[in-house]
């Protein structure tokens, strides 16, 4: 069995693949989906000032250091610290943070998996009807016409009730929401296993 220092580390076949992987890491759902919401919630343009400062002086240096350390040692984040045994805890800490941060992403991917799985039906989609056990008596697919604009009764829409009562199981007084959402658990586990199977053997 070869020692770790003698093992050949698999790398990217082309520099373009490496750059695209970095772009995929940086341009994520948080920047496209959540960033605009946080800007609006925290003062609009004024929020950009601390964001840019923290990105330039905290995030970017740490990001460049992590990428540079991987390029220099040609190892993963845990094995890269073998040359400094006293610093091994940083690698394990980074690994723990990565796994911990995957949880909300796997949950979000699980939403898509759940909707996709429920789409394979010959009948009406479950979020288009109001006669399901998670729907309330006020469930309706109609809207109210006010000043030539369609204003939907959001709490009564079957799509909204499916999202809140079936997927999220929000504690809003609906008895159905007290049931354990094992479908969402299975969808999240399927997303986690798929991502793990794709990445466990490295970039190749």
UniProtKB/TrEMBL annotation:
One of its GO terms (molecular function) is metal ion binding. The lineage of its organism: Eukaryota, Metazoa, Chordata, Tunicata, Ascidiacea. The keyword Membrane applies. Its main location: membrane. It comes from the Eukaryota. It is found in: Membrane. The gene is LOC100181374. Keywords: Membrane, Metal-binding, Sodium, Transmembrane, Transmembrane helix, Transport. Pfam families: SNF (PF00209). GO terms for cellular component: membrane. This is Creatine transporter-like. It is a multi-pass membrane protein. The chain crosses the membrane at residues 12-33, 45-69, 90-118, 180-200. Na(+) binds at residues 24, 31.
């Amino acid at each position: 069995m070869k020692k770790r220092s003698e093992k050949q580390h698999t790398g990217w076949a082309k520099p373009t693949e490496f750059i695209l992987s970095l772009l995929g890491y940086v341009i994520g759902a948080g920047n496209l989906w959540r960033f605009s919401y946080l800007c609006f919630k925290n003062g609009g343009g004024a929020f950009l000032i601390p964001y840019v400062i923290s990105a330039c002086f905290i995030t970017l240096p740490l990001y460049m250091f992590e990428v540079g350390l991987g390029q220099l040692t040609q190892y993963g984040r845990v094995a890269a610290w073998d040359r400094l045994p006293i610093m091994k805890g940083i690698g394990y800490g980074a690994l723990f943070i990565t796994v911990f941060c995957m949880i909300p992403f796997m949950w979000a991917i699980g939403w898509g998996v759940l909707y996709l799985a429920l789409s394979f039906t010959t009948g009406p989609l479950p979020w288009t009807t109001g006669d399901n056990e998670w729907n309330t008596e006020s469930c309706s697919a109609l809207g109210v016409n006010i000043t030539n604009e369609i204003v939907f009764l959001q709490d009564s829409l079957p799509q909204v009730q499916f999202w809140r009562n079936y997927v999220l199981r929000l504690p809003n007084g609906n008895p159905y929401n007290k049931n354990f959402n094992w479908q969402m658990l299975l969808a999240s586990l399927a997303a986690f296993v798929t991502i793990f199977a794709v990445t466990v053997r490295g970039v190749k």
